[in-house]
Amino acid sequence: MKEAIVFYPAPLIGHLISIVELCKLILTHQPSLSLHMLITTPPYDTSSTSNYISTISATLPSITFHNLPTFTPPHTLLSSTLNHETLLFHLLHHNHPHIHQTLISISKTHTIQALILDILCSQSLSIASQLNLPAYIFVPFGASGFSSFLYLPTLHDTYNKSFKELNIFLNIPGVPPMPTCDMPKPMLERNDESYKSLLNCSLAAPKAAGYIVNTFEAFEASSIKAISNGLALPNSFTPPLYCVGPIVSTTTNQYQNTCDHECLRWMDSQPSKSVVFLCFGSLGVFSREQLREIALGLEKSGQRFLWVVRNPINDQNHNLALGIQEDPDLESLLPKGFLDRTKGKGLVVKNWAPQVAVLSHNSVGGFVSHCGWNSVLEAVCGGVPMIAWPLYAEQRFNRVVVVEAMEVALWMHENAAGFVAASEVEERVRELMESERGKQVRIRVGVAKDEAKAALMDGGSSHVALEKLLKSWNGQVS
User: Fold this and answer.
1) To which protein family does this belong (predicted)?
2) CB-based contacts of 315, cutoff 8 Å, min separation 6
């Protein structure tokens, strides 16, 4: 029978893209493998995931997609939770019998060498154990975040209060001192369902055959060393760690039919390293008031900019676009005359821009980012320094890491309610583009870009790690 690898990503577009890029990487080494992807419909409306899957299906015949039954979460759950992760975990728990059945079905025609689970799907390790399949955890974020994930049971036993109540710095192996308020959002409240689910995932993680992490040794040396030395799992055996990144998107995003050509044509006419790019991931949104402050800050900064704008939200608890987004009315959302006054020097685009292409463009000199890990790696690979403005999930944690440990970003300061004033936007953008500190961040990200490229080359740390991973599937000892 043909040899196969099965992947089970969480239904988040950033996680899915990372796993698909891992598939491409694997196929360059073992093109004869049959790859199978277990696909879950997200528990909220989004078109990006289904469109992306359609594109990959048409362009990568080596990947077979298996669509699991749709799950509709109870209305009471939709209205009661503050964390979208709670919806995801309910969905993933509901999937367990379908995962089991699909794996049995695939095994009738293929020899499954390994099951690769998204980190949020770690509780499905029990299914792999039942079927006697080696299972690996794929970590679509960095080693620093992964160390905190593995260390969560230790923190849980150390403190009897929620992180949001402690107001202290946490000592997590290989991570800068972490303010409790900057821990990933679903970890803040220990009585919340998302916290309990993450804790259970962490408790299950030592049962994996190995950890595949989207990072590279030179970028996160201290975190990788801490995990490898067992410090993040002080009471358990630590499975092998395979740092195979940076894994970034190479797909041309043809599933999007919006303004990509307009953006890139406009950037072609801008001076080298002169444009500040503002984009906040696939889900990030702001209030109407915040959009106006950003606009005022950008205008006062005098810098060139490319800004992706979505329709505002009314619920500041989320900062998430959990539904299909209509095109925003820029004239009504932004200050009167803003578009005319900044014409030529700035460009505002609706909903989406081709981020990888933009960050690779010579005219980009800075990136105001939500600190999603994919965006961090894409900026590093493009050699673009960042201003860190987190919105949800683990992004506040990532901000501490990229500013304090990696020194590839500046810190965007918000008030207690999470609001950023126009004066702060202006000051940070100026600092990045004009100051000595901004110059140092630019130099450091340039070094990281070279290190990332070296890690992926023959003999590089990530290339070697991937070869070891492939050998482990074949039962070879390296």
Assistant:
1) Belongs to the UDP-glycosyltransferase family.
2) none
| Full DSSP string of 182-196 | GS-GGGS-TTSHHHH
Q: Structure tokens of 193? A: 């369902």
For the 258-453 domain, the top CATH level (class) is alpha beta
Grouping H, G, I as helix, E, B as strand and the rest as coil, residue 140 is: coil
Rounded to the nearest 10°, the torsion over CA 83, 85, 91, 92 is: -160
Domain with CATH 3.40.50.2000 in the chain: 2-250+456-474, 258-453
pLDDT tens digits for range 318-337? 555 555 567 899 999 999 99
By three-state DSSP, how is residue 382 classified? helix
Each residue of 444-460: pLDDT tens digit? 999 999 999 999 999 99
Is residue 377 a contact partner of residue 401, using CB atoms and an 8 Å limit?
A: no
- CATH numeric code, 2-250+456-474: 3.40.50.2000
Q: Beta strand 169-170 with 178-179: parallel, antiparallel or unpaired?
A: antiparallel
Burial of 32 (0-12, 13-18, 19+ CB in 10 A): exposed
Which residues does 329 contact at the CB level (< 8 Å), separation at least 6?
none
* Alpha-carbon torsion, ordered 281, 454, 229, 29, to 10 deg: 80
How do strand 178-179 and strand 210-213 relate by DSSP bridges? Answer: unpaired
pLDDT tens string 184-205: 999 999 999 999 999 999 999 9
- Tell me what pLDDT residue 83 has: 64
How would you class 61 by CB atoms within 10 Å of its CB: exposed for 0-12, middle for 13-18, buried for 19 or more? exposed
Query: For 229-245, what is each residue's pLDDT tens digit?
Result: 999 999 899 999 999 99
Q: How far apart are CA 417 and CA 434, in angstroms?
A: 29
pLDDT at 478: 39
d(CA 56, CA 454): 28
Strands of 386-388's sheet, edge to edge?
346-350, 304-309, 275-279, 364-369, 386-388, 409-411
Q: Where are the alpha helices (DSSP H) in 237-389?
A: 260-268, 288-301, 330-333, 338-341, 355-359, 373-382
CB 338 within 8 A of CB 299: yes
C-alpha dist (Å) from residue 469 to 318, 339, 394, 464: 38, 51, 27, 9
What 3-state class would DSSP assign to 70?
Answer: coil
3-state secondary structure of 64: strand
Q: For residues 185 and 54, what is the distance between their CA atoms, to the nearest angstrom?
A: 31
